[in-house]
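Is this the right way to post structure tokens for a design question? Let me know if I should format differently. Anyway, here goes:
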């Protein structure tokens, strides 16, 4: 995978070289700047997945073939530059202060989070899935409320020290 200058294009939310400007493919997409490019999200209500997926595929047909990936998630369809995933973003993030030389904890509940579980141990970190068990996760929470309770407990324990 090509690495880009850490201080330039992808930090500013601009599209990566050779990828479409996802934010401009269609006004119905909510574009979010992320470290490795721009991700466009099509959010929807339960039951509308098929209709939204068809619209996203139509919109993405305007992009250069092979330049974008379409990833279904929970009530969202993510459109992103091809070949980039959250594991890449975590690896990049871990190279910057204050994250470098730290042991990350990653908590994910979506298909798009799954690649991170396979790489988090490289940094001495732990990964926890929510709602369902993901391969390579170190642990599992049944529901988001369990995550919030766990975080509150460890924050309180840290404050007491």
């Amino acid at each position: 995978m090509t690495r880009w200058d850490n201080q330039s294009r992808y930090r500013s939310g601009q599209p990566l070289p050779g990828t479409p400007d996802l934010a401009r493919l269609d006004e119905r997409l909510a574009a979010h700047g992320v470290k490795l490019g721009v991700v466009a999200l099509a959010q929807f209500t339960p039951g509308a997945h098929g209709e939204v997926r068809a619209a996203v595929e139509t919109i993405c047909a305007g992009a250069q073939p092979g330049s974008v990936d379409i990833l279904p998630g929970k009530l969202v369809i993510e459109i992103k530059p091809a070949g980039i995933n959250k594991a890449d973003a975590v690896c990049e993030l871990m190279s910057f202060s204050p994250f470098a030389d730290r042991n990350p904890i990653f908590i994910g509940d979506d298909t798009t989070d799954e690649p991170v579980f396979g790489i988090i141990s490289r940094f001495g970190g732990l990964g926890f899935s929510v709602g369902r068990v993901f391969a390579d996760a170190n642990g599992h929470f049944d529901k988001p409320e369990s995550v919030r309770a766990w975080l509150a407990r460890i924050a309180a324990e840290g404050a007491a020290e």
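Format looks fine. Someone answered above. Worth noting: DSSP finds four helices and seven strands in the chain. The CA atoms of residues 73 and 111 lie 6 Å apart.
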